[in-house]
Design goal:
By secondary structure, the chain is an alpha+beta fold. The protein is built from 12 helices and 12 strands. The chain binds ligand MTE and molybdenum atom.
């Protein structure tokens, strides 16, 4: 039989010919000029999202030799906000990008060589992991975890696979990307694309120009950003139609991540017999009256949740470092704050390094006594710190 040489394997001529039923695509919307332009913006969003995600992960699992910073107070708010909004912006971009390149799925022959087959496999991994990453991230924003595994762990591990696959993809496609970006896209005067005459079962798209498609992608990103960013940027709050938690609609202007009833701490936190125990070389207890008699500070510190909302708030309470000193510790101590809430991962957190000097055991929020849902009688708040680490309903502080 006659054979053609195609790199590292030889295909029989029979296989080289596209079967008659196989679809073909002729719309210029599927050209590399469009795919590369969307891909460039998408790639930047993915990398920024990856970098800010690493910063957040570092807060969760601090490297012991490098204590978390405390300044600027809004540092975590900014990096977390950028993470969530670049991630959300990726969703329309990925959909448009997949749409521009999906004809490649029907390339014939499906694989020209072993290397080509492997390359297609890496694209499949890239698409699958990006979609899982975006969907799990989005569901996390909606506070919905319809899976049995640990979100944080899977989201973090897959992020590395995504980052690696993106780099590999860019490396493999470098020539196509270069040519695509160099090819001009006609301006608004361009006539809508006429469908090419069908050949076999050819598919063609009509009605929208290449520039129109790029503008539509940009519009999609704009709309989704405008309707969500209000949960972190106050002037845009009225537009935050898609944001599940909006500071302007929350008690004391701070959204409640988890209520006292959900955490099953209501009766303990609200009890007259409440005591805060400080454990250290010189342990002591504070009841509500003793707590209220201590000197307080009043500071504006943002609260930034990994679920995408953040808000600046005024907190009043006792400096944690004052209690730590009284218990026999100091600025070098690692301090664990423990909640009345005993189930789940949010029951305690560690404060140390620069954050220890700035941390407040807050009893008041935005001028009012803390509500039960915000962590009454006392909760932690520290600057430049992940929201999840600002433990509510404290019962114990352990100095070591
Ligand atoms: N004990 C306890 N502390 C907690 C939580 C919790 O569920 N339980 N949620 C954390 C999270 S994820 C955030 S974002 C903040 C939210 O505080 P707020 O509900 O007062 O806004 O509290 C943190 N402290
Ligand atoms: Mo959170």
């Amino acid at each position: 039989m006659h054979r053609v040489h195609t790199g590292d394997v030889r295909l029989p001529v029979r296989l080289r010919e596209r079967p008659r039923f196989w679809p073909t695509f002729r719309s210029p919307l599927h050209e590399p000029a469009v795919a590369a332009r969307i891909g460039r913006v998408l790639g930047i969003c993915v990398l920024v999202c990856f970098g800010t995600g690493l910063l957040s992960h570092y807060q969760y699992h601090p490297w012991t030799w490098l204590p978390e910073p405390a300044t600027p107070a809004w540092g975590y708010r900014l990096s977390q906000g950028v993470h969530v909004f670049t991630g959300i912006a990726c969703i329309p971009l990925v959909l448009v990008k997949l749409w521009t390149v999906y004809p490649r799925l029907f390339a014939w022959p499906p694989a020209r060589s072993v290397l080509h087959a492997l390359e297609r496999l890496t694209v499949a991994v890239l698409v699958a992991t990006v979609l899982i990453e975006l969907i799990t991230g989005l569901l996390n924003i909606l506070n919905w975890y319809p899976w049995p595994w640990d979100f944080v762990y899977v989201h973090y591990a897959l992020a590395w696979v995504v980052a690696g696959s993106v780099l590999l993809h860019v490396a493999v496609k470098l020539d196509v990307i270069r040519t695509g970006l160099a090819a001009p896209i006609p301006g608004p005067a361009e006539a809508p694309i006429k469908p090419a005459p069908p050949e076999g079962r050819a598919r063609a798209t009509s009605g929208i120009s290449r520039r129109g498609l790029l503008l539509a992608a940009a519009g999609g990103v704009g709309v989704i950003t405008l309707t969500t960013v209000g949960q972190a940027a106050s002037p845009l709050e009225p537009f935050a139609l898609l944001a599940p938690r909006r500071p302007d609609q929350a008690p004391l202007d701070v959204p409640i991540n988890r209520t006292a009833a959900q955490a099953k701490v209501g009766s303990l936190a609200g009890a007259e017999s409440y005591r805060l125990t400080i454990e250290g070389p010189r342990s002591f207890d504070l009841d509500l009256a003793a707590l209220a008699a201590l000197p307080t500070v009043d500071e504006v510190i943002p609260l930034a949740c990994v679920e995408g909302w953040s808000v600046s708030a005024r907190w009043r309470g006792v400096r944690l470092i004052d209690l730590v000193r009284r218990a026999g510790g100091g600025a070098h101590s690692a301090v664990r704050v423990v909640s009345l809430e005993t189930v789940g991962a949010f029951g305690s957190s560690i404060v140390r390094g620069p954050q220890l000097g700035h941390a407040i055991l807050a009893t008041h929020l935005n001028g009012s006594r803390l509500t039960l849902d915000h962590g009454y009688p006392v909760r932690l708040i520290a600057p430049d710190r992940a929201g999840v680490l600002n433990t509510k309903w404290l019962t114990r502080v352990t100095v070591s």
